[in-house]
Amino acid sequence: MSFYFDNLIPVDSISTGHPKLSFKTTDTVYLTWRTSGGSFTLYPNSILGETGSTTTDNHFTIPAGKILKDQTLLIKGVSGDETIYQSVTICIENPELTPTSSIISGAGSGKPSFCVGDGTSSIVGDSLTVNTPTTITGDLTVQAPAAGTSTTKVDILKAAEAHVTGTTHTHGAFRMYGDASTQEFRSDLPVFIDSSLTTVGAINANGGIQVPAINPVSLSQHPFQLILGKQGTLTRILKVFTEGYAIIPQFQNDSDLTGFEVTANVTYPGSPDTVKYFAKYQFFDNYATPFFAGMVIPLTKGASATFTFSPTGTVIQYYLYWMPMGGGGPTNPAGFDFLTPPTGSAEAIEGERIHQEHVARVEARLKRPEKANSFITNLQEAFGKTLNPDKHAALTKKLEELL
User: Looking at residue 228, what is its pLDDT?
Assistant: First the structure.
């Protein structure tokens, strides 16, 4: 008798042999067929494993949970030199698709911790879209799964009102808008703020913001007024611990004021020379009476400015303001000291001035090696040459002597 292998059907059990057209993932799948004998192999053999996929019987038993979605099965029958293939498609009523589950934990009061209102928010495939206002009262944590790397990212975050009290780490575009768009913080690069951020107006941080905890950003809403009231001749020292501006507003006086002069001797960190600023009360073109045009002096972190105000003819009211552009640290957030010059003989005061100039020169000298080395390195890069270490050191030393 020639080899035959036919009538392959799925059944509800081997004993009854009744055909079964569809299954659930929790059902056992039985396959039976007619044959004259031989060896039979099930494909894909990953369903039963290498050892269980071959039989000499006329049936296979596939345990529940092995077929999770619609699956075409192939059986190869072999007898001697003859080979016959038969196939059948198993239909699964409740297929497992990706993702296999979505878990949202409750908040302990019977209420869900994630709410979607009026149907405008949706989860489609791998994308979560929220079109309605969302309030998160606790912590929001996005982390990598137990194995692998998380691909979760925020391309754009917009908040009508945002309060950040802890550490903020953002990647990608980050925008905060205040009431009526009068306040705005915008960054197109990573932002790292480990302390406080207080802004008035707009900050565009295309270069990123990095704020160490010891030096918070504190852009003042208004200048600090250092001198107020009727003053005669006065000398004061302004020492600053952050960048900013010293401002003396303009004024016009019709009384008996005959003269008013302001000098400011400024020592900038790293500079051996004192920079002098000067302004006076005088006539200007097209003005019937003289006036003081004002003065604005930029000060860098660590600078010291000695102001001398000299009115003549009468005592007038004038002002000095300090406008910091950064924070001076937790112990001095305004970033300045306003001091009365030391009293004593003219020789003692002059000696102190000479000492401060000497300190500035020493600081500049200490920076010479770094500047010389940086200059030689830049020259190498500009000309595409690389000097050996000894030659590099020798040239650096010569340049240092010339500075």
Answer: 60
